[in-house]
Amino acid sequence: MKFPLFIIFLLISININAFDLPESYNTDINHIYEVSPVRDQKGLGSCWAFAPCGSMEACAIKKYGKAQILSPLNIVNKNPYPNLSIYKGGNYDKTMAYLFQLIGPVEEKYDPYKPPYSSPKTQPSPCGYSEDVYILSDDLGGFDEEELNSVKMAVGIYGGVVVSYFDDERNYYSSDRKNYFCPYTNHSNHQIVIIGWDDSYSKKHFRHYPKKDGAFLAKGSWGTKINKGFVWVSYEDANLSNAVCYTYSKVEDVPYKNILSYVKSSAVDTYFYPKSRDVYGKVLYNNIGCEIKALRAYIPEKSECKVMLYVDDILKYEDTKEMNWGGYRTFYLDSPVKVEKNNKVAFVIRFTGKDKYGTLPVEMPDNEYRAVLKKRCNFVSWNGRDWKEAPYNIGVGILY
Known about the structure:
Elements: H1 6-13, E1 24-25, H2 47-64, H3 72-77, H4 92-100, E2 128-129, E3 133-137, H5 145-158, E4 161-165, H6 169-172, E5 173-174, E6 179-180, E7 190-198, E8 215-219, E9 230-234, E10 241-246, E11 249-250, E12 259-260, E13 269-272, E14 278-286, E15 290-299, E16 303-311, E17 314-323, E18 326-339, E19 344-353, E20 359-363, E21 378-381, E22 388-389, E23 393-394, E24 396-399
Parallel strand pairs: 6-9
Antiparallel strand pairs: 1-7, 2-11, 3-10, 3-18, 4-7, 4-10, 5-6, 7-8, 8-9, 12-24, 13-20, 14-19, 14-21, 15-18, 15-24, 16-17, 16-19, 20-23, 21-22
């Protein structure tokens, strides 16, 4: 079954359970469609870079009919986070920071995954951009029904969804059936790309029996020697988490090439006021002199999001959307807004919590990244009128 393109827009705002999903999708490993070739991470700690490449490549096939093979090594070596290594592992925060800043992705042929695993000094030009990233599930402990259906829908629309799980083949992998199910909560230590599902996949196929039938078909990054590089994972695996869908558009299909953002890592934390469902952020830009094509913002969680662009205190653009998932989103302006260096530009964003207070994505320093506050440029408010300087950079950017 293929999904019509209009659902892409519905996916952003409508409850995922309102759609009737097929019982199975893309399940025959001998005839896998709209999925890029399986690759091999060579036993190194780079699954977290291979998996997002697989998700974007699948999206490219869905959108253009052909995949561009992307460089996982570039995600690691050119990442805004310092001191990353293909030997150390990583997570989606690092990938989002790299994509948010328009550093990549780049084609594999310009930064190939081979010894000595070093990237060229001059960064290759991106071949495309991930305009929106959807975090469909961020909690440990497996998927609930809504998360399960969200993953399926995103796979059907975009081609592939990255998930984390606890990989312990010795205890939970069935070498006969080439499938995996761990019933016990543990930590996540590996990422794969979900590319299909089967609601009727028998629970009796697994080494340990889950309560119900049903499994995802996932693409790994261990090469093709075992089951052509694919594995079945039970819907009920206790450690499925961090389900992230990365979209993809070719460079020539987007009107911008640069981003201005004070956030360099991903917006890893949130700022909130527990007495208000609304929280506002305002970011000021001076002396920029450009033609603004779009706005970009990190989305911390389920909320209503309103973005506003002001030039010399005059409202030039506003848009409001319901956000069912975190990640980041790109908002295209109705028409480009040209600003001179003497213009004062403000990007204002409001988050309204759906069932609690609103949360504002901010860049907090942690043990991996030393965030540097851009002073007198980041402000926070609970009502959109009374502002005070924020202690952290707010997770937004201007695209031009």
